[in-house]
Design brief:
Elements lengths: L8 H12 L4 E2 L26 E8 L3 H13 L5 E4 L18 E4 L2 H11 L8 H11 L2 H7 L7 E3 L26 E6 L10 H11 L4 E4 L4 E6 L6 E8 L2 E13 L8 H8 L5 E2 L8 H8 L4 E2 L4 E8 L20 E3 L13 E2 L2 E2 L12 E2 L2 E4 L2 E4 L6 E5 L1 H7 L15 E3 L2 H8 L3 H16 L21 E13 L2 E2 L6 E3 L5 E7 L15 H18 L3
Parallel strand pairs: 1-8, 2-3, 2-10, 3-7, 10-25, 11-22
Antiparallel strand pairs: 4-6, 5-6, 8-9, 9-10, 12-23, 13-22, 14-20, 15-16, 17-18, 18-19, 20-22, 21-22, 24-25
Helix pairs in contact: 2-6, 2-12, 3-4, 4-12, 10-11
Length: about 550
Amino acid sequence: MHMETGTTRRSFLVGTGVALGTAVGAVALGGCSSKDASSGDQDLASTGVDFDEEYDVVVVGSGLAGLATAVTVGTEGDGATCLLLEKSDSPLGGGNSAFSGGMIMTTDNYDDCLEYVKALRGENETVSDAICEAYVREAMEHANWLRSLGAPDDFYVSYEDPDGFCQGVYKYDAEYTELDPNASVHGIRFNPDNPDGLTHVIKFLSAKADELADVITRKTKAPAVRLIQDPVSCAIEGVTYLDGNKEVNVRANKGVVMCCGGFENNPEMMANYFKAYGCHPAAAVHNTGDGIVMCEKVGASMWHMHGIAGFWPHVVSLDGTGFTSNLEMIDSGYGILVGTNGRRFTPECPAVSYGNNTRVALDLKLTNGNRHGDYQSGGEWMTRHLPAVSWGIFDAAGFEKATTYFPFDDPVAEGFAYSADTIEGLAAQIDVPVEELTRTVATWNAMLQNGGDTQFYRADDGVAPIVEPPFYAARQCPWFLNTDGGPERNEFGQILDHDKNPIPNLYSAGEFGSIWSDMYNGGGNCGECLAFGRISARNCLGIA
């Protein structure tokens, strides 16, 4: 997933405050046991809940996964009704989908793509073969499904096509070229030049949901706050959501599909699961982990809580309150990164990036860079934590290039960088040990004179010494795309309890308990939203 816009620190904190101040969970139904709760067909005991509304399917979250689920209900449910609840005020959801690049991972070779997807699990085989098989089966159908909903062929373009929209940008390939077979992975994306504003898959599905208003009811500013669970069978009977300050209990005759995204905007969860401080999400202002709490309360098992697409260094204002709107990191070719101790801590170079392997000729066990936040370390690719505060250090020539990453002409005047005529003067301004920063810069310059970075083996493309005053320092914070953790699901989209049994009538789709457990290929998240949106809707309706 490659994000295209960002959030402010103000909205980041405000969104979190709302979530943490809202009671979420399940109706208090002590003694629920899941021993015989493998389906939702049991006679239900009385929960004592008076239902105000009734639908066949309730979908929580109106991002890409939620819209794919609702549209599947609307088009394949033979008149089944669907309530699509959204916490934010946007019909496109308050999570990551609308801000993503909209890339959809697909394939035309089931066997090879299945082998590749299994290889992406690495040593973390928490995701079963059956789940991988379900994902790849649906991945083969993405284009046909979009066509069946009314999208003509020229509404979207394949990154595989060298003569298509992306000619001159990059061909979409598998990111992990060292894994075989990888040539089976392709990507499609809606053309940004499409007429009628249908420039992203989420806009297309939103328009389709509007066409199905006779069976799909959409509500924004309507956060779900608890699941309603039968105390005997453990089956989910419905959801309580807020309409203003009023709680509304809605019965879900067939089931509930949770499409709530991750917990990117919940600092407490981020600290607990990642020990990540001072980090900033690319989007997902409303992704505060509410659905995770709700599902925990009804006995759901969690998985992949460690999973994250991050971290990158990202420019933040000197006072730590403002962020640039451009989501790319400061290009390492323009300078170096140091921590608050004045020392380098990373090779800095984004050599492998966003569905596009730019250094395929090199041995990737020796290549520095990142793949959606995974960095090569010791010959393996893994998540790397970054300091809460770090500094991009540039000389005049490097900063001249780096200013392309700022949305204003003078980053110093706007409070996003310091400048000084000497490295010593710069160190004093950013409050790092003077002797350490001067030694770091001197070491960097000397290494370049002697053939390259022997400290972190940074790639040599674009590197330059830091010698030309004035010198600059731009503050950085850890930045990330999305979390992957949440309730564990099976190949049918069912959410599982701690005994690995399905919680009856409860399903999920998208990044809410994502299937990505180790390595992640670009387009896989949007592909997962569509795949499990359809899978969960069909199984919830009993038509799979």
